[in-house]
Amino acid sequence: MKSLKKPNLKVDDIYCLCSKDFRDKDLVKRLLESEENVIKASENFDKLAIVHETYKMQEDVTCRGVVSDKELINLYIQKLVPKKSVGREYYDYILAMPYNNICPLCGARIVSTIDHYLPKTHYPSLSVIPNNLIPSCRDCNHEKHDIKFKSKEDETLHPYFDNIENHRWVFCDVIEDDPISFKYSIKMIDSKDEMIYKRIRNHFKVLNLDVLYAIKACDIISGIEVMLKKLYKKTGVDAVREQIKEDMESYEVKSLNSWQSAFYRGVYSSEWFFDVWLKQN
User: Fold this and answer.
1) What is the pTM of this model?
2) Structural domain boundaries of the chain?
3) Which end of the chain has fewer CB atoms surrounding its CB within 10 Å, N or C?
4) Are β-strands 181-186 and 170-175 bridged in parallel, bridged antiparallel, or unpaired?
C-alpha cells in the first residue's frame, strides 16, 4: 500500500531483447512481428490503469495466429527471471525499486519476486511490460495469484497508478483483553470517494492484510512493553502518552496509512491502554 514511481524502462527495449534470445529463428521472427501489437497492448493498459479501469482490458487475441500465449509467457519465465538470463537486469531493476526493499503491496514484508498486476495467464502480451510488473513479497504474489478483475471496485491497488496518502484509510483498534491484541480495518472517515474506499478495502481483503498487520502490531507491543511500563513507573502516564504520540507523528510523516502509523494512533486513542493495560504488572 505504498506508491512507487513507474519504472523508467521502455517496452520495446525489453521485448526485443528477450525476443531475440531464442535459438529458434522462426520463433524470433514471429515474436518480433508481434512487437507492434505488444506495444499497443501496453499503451492500452496504461490508459486504463490511469483511470483505474484495467478490468476493461481485453484478454489477448492480438498476437494469436502469430505467436502463442505460452511463447509470450516464456519471454518472462525464460528470459527475464533466471539469474543469468538476458533480461535479468530489468528484473533486478524492478525488484530494487521500493525504498528499503519493502513490498509496496503490503508495506510490511521484504520484496523477493515480481507480481503481474494483470496476470500473464490471462494477458500474455503484458508478460514483460514494465508497468504491469510490480515488485512484491512472495506472500502478496501468492495471495493475489492470477485473479481477474471483473469491475473497477475489484481492482487491487497499483503502486504506479494509485496514491492513497491524501486521507487516512487504515485504522487499528485496541482489543481490550489479556493479552492485548489489535484489529485492523479500512474506514471511510474524512473522504467521500467511495470507489477508492471500496478498492482499498478489496486490496486489504485479497492480500489478508488485517491478519498480517495484527500480527505485526502484537510483535511491536511485545517489544516495547517493558520500556513503556518502566517509563510509566518512573515518570507517569503523561510521559508514556507523549512517547506514543511522538512515535505516531514520526510514522505519519512518512505515511498516513502504514500499519505502524495506524498502530500508534490506535494505541494513542485508547484510554483503556493508558488506564488499564499500562498499569498491569
Assistant:
1) 0.93
2) 11-154, 170-279
3) C
4) antiparallel
Closest to 278 in 3D by CA, of 223, 236, 216, 219:
236
The pLDDT tens digits of the residues spanning 180-235 come to 999 999 999 988 899 999 999 999 999 999 999 999 999 999 999 999 999 999 99
Q: Single out the residue of 154, 157, 188 nearest to residue 171, CA to CA.
A: 188
7 within 8 A of 93, measured Cβ to Cβ: yes
Q: How many CB atoms are closer than 10 A to CB 219?
A: 9
Pairing of strands 133-136, 113-116: antiparallel
Q: What is the mean pLDDT of the chain?
A: 94
